[in-house]
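Hello, quick one for you while I still have it in my head. A protein chain has come my way and I'm curious about its shape. Can you walk me through what the tokens say about the fold? No rush at all, and the record is pasted right below.
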Amino acid sequence: MPKRRLSLEDEVQTYEQVKEELRRSPRTWLVTGVAGFIGSNLMETLLELGQNVIGLDNFSSGYRRNLNEVLRECRQYRQSFKLIEGDIRDLETCRTACKGVDYVLHQGAIGSVPRSVVDPQEANAVNVDGTLNVLQAAREQHVKRVVFASSSAVFGDCADLPATEDRLGAPLSPYAVTKLVNEKYAEVFSRCYQLSTVGLRYFNVFGPRQDPLGSYAAVIPHWIHALIAGEACRVNGDGETTRDFVGVTDVVQANLLAATAELPAAAHRIYNVGAGRRTSLNELHDMLAAALRTLNPDQLVLRRVHADFREGDVRHSQADISRIGAELKYTPAEDLTGALEATMEWYVKRANAAHDLVKA
């Protein structure tokens, strides 16, 4: 009996319907950057759905502990995961990784605006050359679709909010340029080689396993780490800068919907992936502090300190998610407070476990 195909024609399938379909008919997925924050969350959900997952990572920014944590949580599915330790800048590695794969979820990248300002050549080599290799390998191996991580950074200095997919400004960083080039390459591969591609413009993603340390850490894990340690959070600028914060579970949802949607042959699509709301950094700090006090009422929370604005940053950001909602039935969580509390709880548990280990 032939497999039932996932379809958007039947009023578009919901995420729950897509997950049920995947459980009934497992696929093989390649996740690049699998040891990273988003990659490991994708791996976890796919394994929980009974999928076969190939992970590719060179561990330049990802962590083996992320993979180990997922494999502990998904112990019964360990045999469904294969790790290839390698670099997307190597075409032969990408070819090997794409063999027998149905869908590619391409997350491997230098994912930092300030890091790209410091070293634009590295950002270009990984983000552009690496993505070109993934597209070429996927084309050669007849992969059904490549879903790749783009970024809200491509909107640049466009002041129109909420940001719609078709209105872009001038890019403000080398990182933004690399993501724009990725989108163009994907479009050309769809047109010239009939490779189906979907680009997901992530806004400010947060959740478990996001690295809180280092010079280029994202604001939420960085501030959570500082708050747990009883340190003051540093705010770039006056704190009225706004961002569209979206939980990693919603980003996973967007990837699976984008991969499995029945789009026209050789289709190329670009979608915003956010929550569709604006939150200021000052508001974010207050919400994180409240989340920590809920878990630990005796926790000392210091007043935030303000510094200069950061080079390459945009002032305000908010996603228009009407396109992905209409075409893929993407439905992000409405409760930012609850998502931040759940994320805080994960970091607090990890901090307590590390403290207990040291004491032992």
